[in-house]
Every structure is written in C-alpha cells, then in structure tokens.
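Batch manifest line 402
LIGAND: pyridoxal-5'-phosphate
JOB: complex structure
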Amino acid sequence: MMQIDEARALDRDDPFADTARLFDLPQGVIYLDGNSLGPPPRPALDALARAAQMEWGHDLIASWNTADWMGLPLRTGARIARLIGVDAASVIAGDSVSVNLFKLAAGLVMGGAKGVAVERGDFPTDGYVMEGLARLSGTPFALIEPGTGVAGLPDHVDVLVRSAVHYKTAAKVDIAAEEREAARLGKTIIWDLSHGAGLVDLKLERDGAKYAVGCGYKYLNGGPGAPAFIYCHRDVVEHFAQPLSGWMGHASPFSFKDGYAPAKGVTRFGAGTPAILSMSTLHGALAVFDGVDMAGVEAKARALGDTFLAAIEPLGLACVSPPSAQRAGHVSLVHEHGYAIVQALIAQGVIGDFREPDIMRFGFAPLYLTHEAVFEAGTRLVDIVRSSAYRDARFAKRNAVT
Ligand SMILES: Cc1ncc(COP(=O)(O)O)c(C=O)c1O
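JOB STATUS: finished
ARTIFACT:
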C-alpha cells in the first residue's frame, strides 16, 4: 500500500511547483474540484482588477480601442488555441458552451448537414441544445449508445456532438481515430472539450478535428461563468454561416449597415457584445499556461489520480473511471451515500463534488495540486467512510448545486 512518503517523493521533482505559487487557495483546503470550477490564479484577479478599475473605471468607453477590448475575444482565443493544438487564429472566446454548440451545429445544418446526435449519458446540455435545434430546424435528432461514436450514427444523421473527455468518468476519446472514422463515413464531429482544455495535451489540428467548443471556467480557471470558446478550422471557416448572426460577428460592426455580412475567420462566431470583465479575467488566467508543457500537465493529472486511488484502495470502492492511460483529469467513485460523504469531506476542507445518482468526483488539476495533498485527501476519505462520519444528519441536506 502506498505511504505518504512515496507521495512526497513524487512531489520532489514536480515540474509545476512554480505554477502552484500563482494560485492562492484558502489555507487548509485541498481543492479537488478544478474540473468543475477552477480556482482563481493571481494573474486572473490582477487582470480583473485592471479591467474594472483602470480600463472601465478610468478610461471608460475609450477602452474599446485603447485596451483593445474589441480584440479581446480573439486574443483570448489565441491563448486557448495553443492548449488545444490548433492555429492561433482559429479560436474565439465568448458565450457559453451551450450557445456555441448551437452556433456550430445549426451552421452545419444550415449548410446542408442532416440530423444531429449525441451519445446517451454525455453532458446533458449538449443533448438538450441538439434537441432544440432539431425542433427548430426539423432535422432529425438521435441519442446513440455510449461509446459508439460516429460508427453508431444512423444513416440519416450527419453530425455528432461528442465530449473528448466524459464529464462523469473522465474517459478520453481517441480523437484522431474518431476523425478518421468520421472521414470514412462522411460524418462530422463537433468536439466538446470542456473537460479536456487546459488538462489534456490536445492536438486537434493534427488529429483532423474541424469543430470544437469548450468551457472557460474548468481547467482554464477563467472564473464562474467565464466565456467559453469555439474552434473552427481555417479550411472551413470562410464558408461557415452561423445562425446567431449578431453585429459582433459582422464584417464591419461600426458601419451600422442594414444587412448582415460575416466577418472573416472565426470572428464571425461573435454575436452580441462580449462580457469584457469575465473575458479579461479568463485572458489573465490563461497566462499561467505560458510556457507550460501540456504533455507534462496531462501526465501529472493521471499520476495524481493514481496517487488518490492508491490512498483509497483499502475501501475497495467501485471506480467508474478508466485506468490512467485512458483517463483525463478526474476520478469518479461509486457509493450509495456519495452525496453525504462528499459533504463530510468538504467539512474537512477536501472539496470534491457529487453527480447523480451515486458518483463522487475528484478532480486533479496539476498546476496547483501536490501528491502529498491528494494522498491526504484520500486518507480523509478513508477515515470518513470507515468511521461512518458521513452519517451525521447535517451531511444529508441537499444543496441546489451538488
Ligand atoms: C462536457 C460539458 N459540456 C458543457 C458544459 C456546460 O457548458 P455551459 O454551461 O458553458 O453551457 C459542461 C459543464 O459542466 C460540461 O461538463
């Protein structure tokens, strides 16, 4: 069985000791929920303060030009682009994953694609938005079996929305293999990178992916409700018509012309005025990734997950996450009292989360976590389960957000 000394030894040559100093987590907290809401890196808070006080407070409306607020969605997109392995000009930040999925899928349907699908059990918003698009456009909607990917699409469905990393299990999809299969079958995939961006060493362009969306508030640490992003490959973007054709995606928003003409490149995915304070925060947050090797980030996430699993091994809990070679950033364990156990852990400063019906999720963001802390979190989980401390009535009360 693993001992704390082994965890400490793993920390001795941690390549991310410097990035940990950029995060100011509360004393005594072991934060294992960066897969749901990343904590604030200092450069994010600095950028937020600058944008609020100087740019907005002092320079007022001039900041659209002087602080290049107009260019912020693309500048933020360029920082994300490196993390997902695509051309810097092919990503734009803005809106939410749900809205961005609609823009991409509806654009494909408007361009002649027939039918949209998601895998059963994938993140619900992806399916809900596709259902809405199907109702609006009359295109078919299909829920296909989990894990079948494009091969599971019925003949009359061309577009699959698929998470690159599953939100419950953290299972990673082989994007290159899926794209090869999609090319063979004449299907199109829109990747949801919400649980991959900022954690997995994604190489979307190399792997043949043309369309993707992702979250700004998980591993990218952009803050609650941070803008999401859209990636659209340069080979297809100039012919891509997106349906939320607002003025911020217009070729010349300040000429106030009647009639829509799309901007060049991914700027056309703009719709309304960007949320500048949130976007500035996200842009600042992304600075922590400067010079960071994403292969190293992914490897450390898996190693942290293994340390946690080793620490809790005596409990013999079922784990719905795959072994580390196919796993991304979190580990999901099954327990019928999972909700209460997570609450009991939170009371001790170990923050994870719970997903219905019985899944306890623990995320291992490599930029600020140590093996020692993760081992300690695992030890506390063992204590709570063994001592039945979670049976205390205060841990049964359900909050709106789990
Ligand atoms: C895979 C996945 N997609 C989408 C979302 C939600 O996206 P948004 O709230 O930005 O629409 C989440 C949130 O947890 C997620 O895990």
